[in-house]
């Protein structure tokens, strides 16, 4: 019998290994098509195991027809690691190359596990941050 420590954690999919729950238990990512936006709702932890699921949903959202903005709701994320930052940066860059360009919009409210890494890396200068989904859909700051 091989000890659990000899098994590798899957990156980008595959089966869960001993000692690690399947990614679907760590994150819930769903796409909501609205007339005024495509909303990607994220609940849970965004890390090396779950970031590929977020990326898959974001790619599909960016491929949606029309010129609706893509809004990522991160207000219920409890952990946000560097793989999540990479997915957001890549998705924001990809959004900028699409016809009818609309910047990727993030609803982060004051969610410290999400906001802190974004601010520390300087990504707040390149990502459009909003306090809630409705504000992000409108593309306006409060006030």
UniProtKB/TrEMBL annotation:
One Pfam family in the UniProt entry: STAS
Matches recorded under InterPro entries: Anti-sigma_ant, STAS_dom, STAS_dom_sf
Chain ranges of the STAS domain: 27-140
Region (Disordered) location: 1-24
Top-rank taxon, per record: Bacteria
PROSITE patterns given in the database record: STAS
Homology family: Belongs to the anti-sigma-factor antagonist family.
Name of this protein: Anti-sigma factor antagonist
Organism this protein belongs to: Pseudonocardia zijingensis
